[in-house]
Amino acid sequence: MSKKDKRLKRSKLKAKQANIIKHREKFQSRNNNLSIARITPRLIAFFKTLPELTPDLECVPLIYNYYVTSGGVDGGSSLDDLSFQVAYIFVMYGHWFTSDSNVIDLTELMIHADLFTENETFIKQLNYAQMCL
Description:
The protein is mainly alpha-helical. Helix content is 66%, strand content 5%. Helix 1 crosses helix 5 and helix 3 crosses helix 6. The radius of gyration is 16 Å and the shape is globular.
């Protein structure tokens, strides 16, 4: 690996870390308290019907359809952006799938949901879901 490649890789990593810090500060400034979100039994029942998590994010269209048909997230109707709302449910699903826990730190949930709204694969899957519905 050449010096130029290493430098480029290092700069990308620094930019990613700075972006994560920026998002964390943004959400922590909104909510200085430690808050938790509980995944409702209705969402857990829906999560059990979803396919396993894959790098292709194949479950995003299904989550989008669920969100549109069910009228939103329990207690999350104050969220404005549709892509953020779908990402919010997706991150809940990812947490539930990997940890089998129905409790998640609200600040971390919002940070990761915000980061997913910028993910190319997520955007592609969300656009696909919107075209199909």
